[in-house]
Protein backbone atom coordinates (compact mmCIF):
# COMPACT_ATOMS: atom_id res chain seq x y z
CA UNK A 1 0.00 0.00 0.00
CA UNK A 2 1.45 3.39 -0.97
CA UNK A 3 0.80 6.73 0.74
CA UNK A 4 -2.16 7.59 -1.50
CA UNK A 5 -3.84 4.21 -1.05
CA UNK A 6 -3.38 4.63 2.69
CA UNK A 7 -5.00 8.09 2.64
CA UNK A 8 -7.86 6.79 0.50
CA UNK A 9 -8.48 3.72 2.62
CA UNK A 10 -8.17 5.17 6.12
CA UNK A 11 -8.73 8.93 5.97
CA UNK A 12 -10.95 9.63 2.98
CA UNK A 13 -13.87 7.66 4.47
CA UNK A 14 -17.40 9.02 5.02
CA UNK A 15 -17.19 8.24 8.77
CA UNK A 16 -14.44 10.89 8.96
CA UNK A 17 -15.29 13.27 6.12
CA UNK A 18 -19.04 13.51 6.57
CA UNK A 19 -21.90 14.13 5.84
CA UNK A 20 -22.16 16.31 8.95
CA UNK A 21 -23.82 19.63 9.64
CA UNK A 22 -20.59 21.56 8.98
CA UNK A 23 -20.10 19.91 5.61
CA UNK A 24 -22.00 22.53 3.64
CA UNK A 25 -19.09 24.81 4.59
CA UNK A 26 -16.59 22.35 3.11
CA UNK A 27 -16.38 23.12 -0.60
CA UNK A 28 -13.52 20.69 -1.22
CA UNK A 29 -12.08 18.15 1.24
CA UNK A 30 -9.32 15.52 0.94
CA UNK A 31 -7.69 15.02 -2.47
CA UNK A 32 -6.35 18.31 -3.81
CA UNK A 33 -3.37 20.44 -2.77
CA UNK A 34 -5.57 22.31 -0.29
CA UNK A 35 -9.04 22.04 1.15
CA UNK A 36 -11.49 24.83 0.31
CA UNK A 37 -13.89 25.98 3.04
CA UNK A 38 -16.37 28.78 3.46
CA UNK A 39 -17.51 30.59 6.58
CA UNK A 40 -21.10 31.81 6.78
CA UNK A 41 -21.66 35.57 6.61
CA UNK A 42 -21.41 37.14 10.05
CA UNK A 43 -19.12 34.42 11.46
CA UNK A 44 -15.39 34.18 12.14
CA UNK A 45 -13.09 31.17 12.05
CA UNK A 46 -11.26 30.19 15.28
CA UNK A 47 -8.33 27.81 14.89
CA UNK A 48 -6.08 25.76 17.13
CA UNK A 49 -3.37 23.11 16.64
CA UNK A 50 -2.06 20.54 19.12
CA UNK A 51 0.69 17.98 18.71
CA UNK A 52 0.85 14.70 20.62
CA UNK A 53 4.16 12.82 20.72
CA UNK A 54 4.34 9.15 21.70
CA UNK A 55 6.07 8.73 25.04
CA UNK A 56 5.45 12.38 25.95
CA UNK A 57 1.69 12.93 25.63
CA UNK A 58 0.55 9.32 25.51
CA UNK A 59 2.21 6.04 26.44
CA UNK A 60 3.65 3.52 24.03
CA UNK A 61 1.10 0.78 23.34
CA UNK A 62 -2.03 2.79 24.21
CA UNK A 63 -5.20 1.40 22.60
CA UNK A 64 -5.36 3.26 19.23
CA UNK A 65 -9.18 3.58 19.44
CA UNK A 66 -8.87 5.47 22.73
CA UNK A 67 -5.98 7.51 21.34
CA UNK A 68 -8.02 8.54 18.28
CA UNK A 69 -10.90 9.80 20.42
CA UNK A 70 -8.71 11.47 23.00
CA UNK A 71 -6.38 13.22 20.53
CA UNK A 72 -9.27 14.82 18.66
CA UNK A 73 -11.32 15.48 21.81
CA UNK A 74 -8.59 17.53 23.48
CA UNK A 75 -8.28 19.70 20.36
CA UNK A 76 -12.04 20.14 20.02
CA UNK A 77 -12.10 21.12 23.70
CA UNK A 78 -10.18 24.27 22.73
CA UNK A 79 -13.06 25.14 20.38
CA UNK A 80 -15.51 24.61 23.24
CA UNK A 81 -13.50 26.99 25.44
CA UNK A 82 -13.87 29.70 22.76
CA UNK A 83 -17.63 29.18 22.56
CA UNK A 84 -17.20 27.96 18.99
CA UNK A 85 -19.23 25.54 16.90
CA UNK A 86 -17.03 22.91 15.18
CA UNK A 87 -16.28 23.56 11.50
CA UNK A 88 -13.58 21.09 10.28
CA UNK A 89 -10.13 19.67 11.05
CA UNK A 90 -6.90 18.48 9.44
CA UNK A 91 -4.57 15.72 10.61
CA UNK A 92 -0.77 15.54 10.22
CA UNK A 93 0.26 12.02 11.13
CA UNK A 94 3.80 10.68 11.42
CA UNK A 95 3.91 6.88 11.61
CA UNK A 96 6.91 4.64 12.27
CA UNK A 97 5.45 1.92 10.02
CA UNK A 98 2.34 1.02 8.10
CA UNK A 99 0.38 -0.79 10.81
CA UNK A 100 -3.09 -1.47 9.41
CA UNK A 101 -4.53 -2.64 12.74
CA UNK A 102 -3.33 0.54 14.47
CA UNK A 103 -4.66 2.74 11.65
CA UNK A 104 -8.06 1.03 11.73
CA UNK A 105 -8.33 1.57 15.50
CA UNK A 106 -7.08 5.14 15.43
CA UNK A 107 -9.51 6.10 12.65
CA UNK A 108 -12.38 4.36 14.48
CA UNK A 109 -11.67 6.37 17.64
CA UNK A 110 -11.52 9.63 15.68
CA UNK A 111 -14.66 8.71 13.73
CA UNK A 112 -16.62 8.26 16.98
CA UNK A 113 -15.77 11.81 18.01
CA UNK A 114 -16.23 13.15 14.47
CA UNK A 115 -19.85 11.99 14.42
CA UNK A 116 -20.42 13.00 18.06
CA UNK A 117 -19.27 16.59 17.37
CA UNK A 118 -20.07 16.92 13.63
CA UNK A 119 -16.56 17.94 12.67
CA UNK A 120 -15.38 16.61 9.27
CA UNK A 121 -11.77 15.74 8.36
CA UNK A 122 -10.83 17.88 5.33
CA UNK A 123 -7.14 17.15 4.74
CA UNK A 124 -3.77 16.45 6.25
CA UNK A 125 -0.31 15.08 5.74
CA UNK A 126 1.10 11.59 6.22
CA UNK A 127 4.78 10.96 6.85
CA UNK A 128 7.11 8.25 8.19
CA UNK A 129 8.95 8.73 11.50
CA UNK A 130 8.40 8.58 15.30
CA UNK A 131 4.66 8.38 16.11
CA UNK A 132 3.38 11.97 16.27
CA UNK A 133 -0.15 13.30 15.82
CA UNK A 134 -0.90 16.94 14.99
CA UNK A 135 -4.53 18.00 14.85
CA UNK A 136 -5.58 21.39 13.55
CA UNK A 137 -9.20 22.20 14.39
CA UNK A 138 -11.37 25.05 13.21
CA UNK A 139 -14.65 26.36 14.57
CA UNK A 140 -16.95 29.30 13.96
CA UNK A 141 -18.22 32.08 16.22
CA UNK A 142 -20.37 35.13 15.45
CA UNK A 143 -18.12 38.08 14.50
CA UNK A 144 -16.46 39.47 17.65
CA UNK A 145 -18.19 36.87 19.84
CA UNK A 146 -15.36 34.47 20.76
CA UNK A 147 -15.15 33.73 24.47
CA UNK A 148 -11.70 34.98 25.45
CA UNK A 149 -9.42 34.61 28.47
CA UNK A 150 -8.76 38.26 29.13
CA UNK A 151 -12.16 39.69 30.04
CA UNK A 152 -12.74 38.37 33.56
CA UNK A 153 -13.85 41.25 35.84
CA UNK A 154 -13.40 41.77 39.58
CA UNK A 155 -16.65 40.70 41.23
CA UNK A 156 -17.38 37.97 38.66
CA UNK A 157 -18.17 34.55 40.04
CA UNK A 158 -15.79 31.75 39.09
CA UNK A 159 -17.33 28.47 37.91
CA UNK A 160 -16.32 25.03 36.69
CA UNK A 161 -18.39 22.52 34.75
CA UNK A 162 -18.90 18.86 35.70
CA UNK A 163 -16.49 17.38 38.24
CA UNK A 164 -12.73 17.86 38.61
CA UNK A 165 -9.86 15.52 39.45
CA UNK A 166 -11.33 12.38 37.86
CA UNK A 167 -8.75 12.00 35.08
CA UNK A 168 -5.99 12.68 37.62
CA UNK A 169 -7.54 10.02 39.83
CA UNK A 170 -7.23 7.53 36.95
CA UNK A 171 -3.57 8.40 36.28
CA UNK A 172 -1.99 5.73 38.54
CA UNK A 173 -3.97 3.08 36.58
CA UNK A 174 -3.15 4.74 33.25
CA UNK A 175 0.57 4.79 34.07
CA UNK A 176 0.40 1.05 34.76
CA UNK A 177 -0.92 0.62 31.22
CA UNK A 178 -4.61 0.12 32.11
CA UNK A 179 -7.13 0.54 29.32
CA UNK A 180 -10.86 1.11 29.99
CA UNK A 181 -11.51 -2.62 29.67
CA UNK A 182 -9.03 -3.34 32.47
CA UNK A 183 -11.36 -1.66 35.00
CA UNK A 184 -12.17 -4.00 37.92
CA UNK A 185 -15.45 -2.23 38.80
CA UNK A 186 -17.74 0.68 37.87
CA UNK A 187 -15.67 3.17 39.88
CA UNK A 188 -12.45 2.38 38.05
CA UNK A 189 -14.33 2.34 34.76
CA UNK A 190 -15.75 5.81 35.40
CA UNK A 191 -12.32 7.26 36.23
CA UNK A 192 -10.62 5.59 33.26
CA UNK A 193 -13.41 6.82 30.94
CA UNK A 194 -12.83 10.32 32.25
CA UNK A 195 -9.15 10.06 31.32
CA UNK A 196 -9.46 8.28 27.96
CA UNK A 197 -12.73 9.68 26.64
CA UNK A 198 -12.85 13.40 27.51
CA UNK A 199 -16.08 15.11 26.40
CA UNK A 200 -15.51 18.52 24.78
CA UNK A 201 -18.03 20.86 26.44
CA UNK A 202 -19.23 22.33 23.15
CA UNK A 203 -22.86 22.97 24.12
CA UNK A 204 -21.82 24.67 27.34
CA UNK A 205 -19.18 26.82 25.60
CA UNK A 206 -21.68 28.08 23.02
CA UNK A 207 -24.27 28.70 25.73
CA UNK A 208 -21.74 30.64 27.83
CA UNK A 209 -20.84 32.80 24.84
CA UNK A 210 -24.52 33.59 24.31
CA UNK A 211 -25.29 34.21 27.99
CA UNK A 212 -22.72 36.72 29.13
CA UNK A 213 -19.76 34.71 30.44
CA UNK A 214 -16.73 37.02 30.54
CA UNK A 215 -13.82 34.54 30.21
CA UNK A 216 -13.32 30.80 29.76
CA UNK A 217 -10.60 28.17 29.46
CA UNK A 218 -10.64 24.39 29.28
CA UNK A 219 -8.97 22.61 32.18
CA UNK A 220 -6.20 20.59 30.56
CA UNK A 221 -3.22 21.24 32.86
CA UNK A 222 -5.04 21.51 36.21
CA UNK A 223 -7.48 24.07 37.60
CA UNK A 224 -4.94 26.32 39.34
CA UNK A 225 -2.62 26.42 36.34
CA UNK A 226 -5.37 27.08 33.82
CA UNK A 227 -7.15 29.59 36.03
CA UNK A 228 -3.83 31.44 36.30
CA UNK A 229 -3.97 32.01 32.52
CA UNK A 230 -7.37 33.71 32.89
CA UNK A 231 -6.12 35.79 35.83
CA UNK A 232 -2.89 36.89 34.16
CA UNK A 233 -4.51 37.86 30.89
CA UNK A 234 -7.39 39.61 32.69
CA UNK A 235 -5.05 41.38 35.15
CA UNK A 236 -6.98 40.26 38.21
CA UNK A 237 -6.88 37.64 40.98
CA UNK A 238 -9.27 35.13 42.53
CA UNK A 239 -10.34 33.61 45.82
CA UNK A 240 -11.58 30.08 45.82
CA UNK A 241 -12.56 27.47 48.38
CA UNK A 242 -11.52 23.87 47.85
CA UNK A 243 -14.62 22.77 49.80
CA UNK A 244 -16.70 24.14 46.90
CA UNK A 245 -14.98 22.04 44.21
CA UNK A 246 -17.34 19.56 42.51
CA UNK A 247 -16.07 16.00 43.06
CA UNK A 248 -17.50 12.80 41.60
CA UNK A 249 -18.69 9.97 43.86
CA UNK A 250 -16.12 7.73 42.11
CA UNK A 251 -13.20 10.01 42.99
CA UNK A 252 -14.39 10.23 46.60
CA UNK A 253 -14.76 6.45 46.77
CA UNK A 254 -11.09 5.92 45.87
CA UNK A 255 -9.35 8.87 47.54
CA UNK A 256 -9.48 10.66 50.90
CA UNK A 257 -11.31 13.97 50.87
CA UNK A 258 -8.00 15.84 51.10
CA UNK A 259 -6.38 13.94 48.24
CA UNK A 260 -9.49 14.24 46.05
CA UNK A 261 -9.56 18.03 46.54
CA UNK A 262 -5.86 18.29 45.80
CA UNK A 263 -6.39 16.33 42.55
CA UNK A 264 -9.29 18.64 41.66
CA UNK A 265 -7.04 21.68 42.16
CA UNK A 266 -3.90 20.53 40.39
CA UNK A 267 -4.43 17.43 38.22
CA UNK A 268 -5.10 17.93 34.53
CA UNK A 269 -6.86 16.09 31.70
CA UNK A 270 -10.49 16.61 32.78
CA UNK A 271 -11.27 19.04 29.92
CA UNK A 272 -14.04 20.71 31.87
CA UNK A 273 -14.56 24.45 31.36
CA UNK A 274 -13.48 27.01 33.95
CA UNK A 275 -15.23 30.33 33.37
CA UNK A 276 -16.24 33.63 34.89
CA UNK A 277 -19.52 35.52 34.75
CA UNK A 278 -21.15 38.49 36.50
CA UNK A 279 -23.95 37.48 38.91
CA UNK A 280 -26.40 40.06 37.60
CA UNK A 281 -26.83 38.80 34.06
CA UNK A 282 -25.97 35.15 34.46
CA UNK A 283 -28.46 32.43 35.38
CA UNK A 284 -26.44 29.34 36.12
CA UNK A 285 -29.59 27.23 36.57
CA UNK A 286 -30.27 27.39 32.83
CA UNK A 287 -26.88 25.97 31.90
CA UNK A 288 -27.02 22.93 29.55
CA UNK A 289 -24.92 20.93 32.02
CA UNK A 290 -24.14 21.16 35.76
CA UNK A 291 -21.77 23.98 36.69
CA UNK A 292 -20.56 24.91 40.18
CA UNK A 293 -19.55 28.27 41.63
CA UNK A 294 -16.14 27.83 43.28
CA UNK A 295 -14.99 31.37 44.01
CA UNK A 296 -14.79 35.03 43.06
CA UNK A 297 -12.61 37.18 40.82
CA UNK A 298 -10.79 39.90 42.76
CA UNK A 299 -9.09 43.15 41.84
CA UNK A 300 -5.94 42.26 43.72
CA UNK A 301 -3.92 40.08 41.28
CA UNK A 302 -3.21 37.07 43.53
CA UNK A 303 -4.79 33.67 43.76
CA UNK A 304 -6.00 32.65 47.23
CA UNK A 305 -7.10 29.08 47.95
CA UNK A 306 -8.85 28.62 51.32
CA UNK A 307 -7.49 32.00 52.40
CA UNK A 308 -3.87 31.15 51.56
CA UNK A 309 -1.91 32.64 48.68
CA UNK A 310 -1.09 29.94 46.14
CA UNK A 311 2.45 29.59 44.79
CA UNK A 312 2.41 30.27 41.02
CA UNK A 313 5.27 27.78 40.53
CA UNK A 314 3.12 24.89 41.73
CA UNK A 315 0.10 25.53 39.59
CA UNK A 316 0.43 23.44 36.46
CA UNK A 317 2.31 21.38 33.93
CA UNK A 318 4.84 23.08 31.66
CA UNK A 319 7.01 21.69 28.88
CA UNK A 320 10.72 22.69 28.92
CA UNK A 321 10.75 23.15 32.71
P1 LIG B 1 0.53 17.33 -1.19
O1 LIG B 1 1.70 16.55 -1.71
O2 LIG B 1 -0.15 18.18 -2.22
O3 LIG B 1 0.82 18.02 0.08
P2 LIG B 1 -0.36 14.95 0.02
O4 LIG B 1 0.22 13.89 -0.82
O5 LIG B 1 0.34 15.29 1.28
O6 LIG B 1 -0.58 16.22 -0.86
O7 LIG B 1 -1.86 14.60 0.35
C1 LIG B 1 -2.79 14.29 -0.66
C2 LIG B 1 -4.17 14.62 -0.18
O8 LIG B 1 -4.47 13.80 0.93
C3 LIG B 1 -4.30 16.06 0.30
O9 LIG B 1 -5.59 16.52 -0.04
C4 LIG B 1 -4.16 15.95 1.79
O10 LIG B 1 -4.88 16.98 2.45
C5 LIG B 1 -4.75 14.57 2.06
N1 LIG B 1 -4.13 13.92 3.25
C6 LIG B 1 -2.84 13.49 3.39
N2 LIG B 1 -2.65 12.92 4.59
C7 LIG B 1 -3.83 13.00 5.23
C8 LIG B 1 -4.27 12.61 6.53
N3 LIG B 1 -3.47 12.03 7.41
N4 LIG B 1 -5.56 12.87 6.86
C9 LIG B 1 -6.38 13.47 5.98
N5 LIG B 1 -6.04 13.84 4.76
C10 LIG B 1 -4.78 13.61 4.37
MG1 LIG C 1 1.42 17.04 1.93
Care to count the β-strands? 13
Molecules bound to protein: adenosine-5'-diphosphate, magnesium ion
Give me the strand/helix succession.
HHEEEHEHEEEHHHEHEHHEEEE
Q: If you average the pLDDT, what whole number results?
A: 95
Global outline: globular
Distance between the termini: 41 Å
Number of helices: 10
Strand content: 15-25%
Q: Largest sheet, if any? A: 7 strands, mixed
- Low-confidence runs (pLDDT<50, min 5 residues)? none
Strands across the major sheet, in which order?
8-10-7-11-9-12-13
* Helix proportion: 25-40%
Rg estimate, integer Å = 20 Å
Structural class computed from helices and strand pairing: alpha+beta
3D structure, described in words:
There is one protein chain. By secondary structure, this protein is an alpha+beta fold. It contains 10 helices and 13 strands. It has helices spanning 3-11, 14-17, 64-81, 100-117, 166-175, 186-196, 202-210, 223-234, 249-254, 257-266, and strands at 26-28, 36-37, 43-53, 85-95, 121-128, 132-142, 157-161, 215-218, 237-240, 273-277, 291-298, 303-305, 308-309. The strands form 3 sheets. Strands 8-10-7-11-9-12-13 form a 7-stranded mixed β-sheet, sandwiched between helices. Helix 3 packs parallel to helix 7 (202-210) and helix 5 packs across helix 6 (186-196). It starts with a helix and ends in a 12-residue tail after the last strand. The structure holds adenosine-5'-diphosphate (ADP) and magnesium ion. Adenosine-5'-diphosphate is lined by residues 7, 11, 30-33, 91, 93, 121, 123-126.
Amino acid sequence: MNEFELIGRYFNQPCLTGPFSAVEDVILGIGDDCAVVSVAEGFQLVQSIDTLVEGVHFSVGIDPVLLGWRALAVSVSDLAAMGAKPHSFTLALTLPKLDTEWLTGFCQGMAELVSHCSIPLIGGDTTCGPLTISLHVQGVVPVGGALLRHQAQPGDTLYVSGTLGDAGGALPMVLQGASIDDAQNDIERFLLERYYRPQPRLKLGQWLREHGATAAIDVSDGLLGDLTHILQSSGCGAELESSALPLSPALCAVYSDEKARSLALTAGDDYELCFTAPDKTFDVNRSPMPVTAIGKITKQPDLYVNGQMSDPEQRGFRHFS
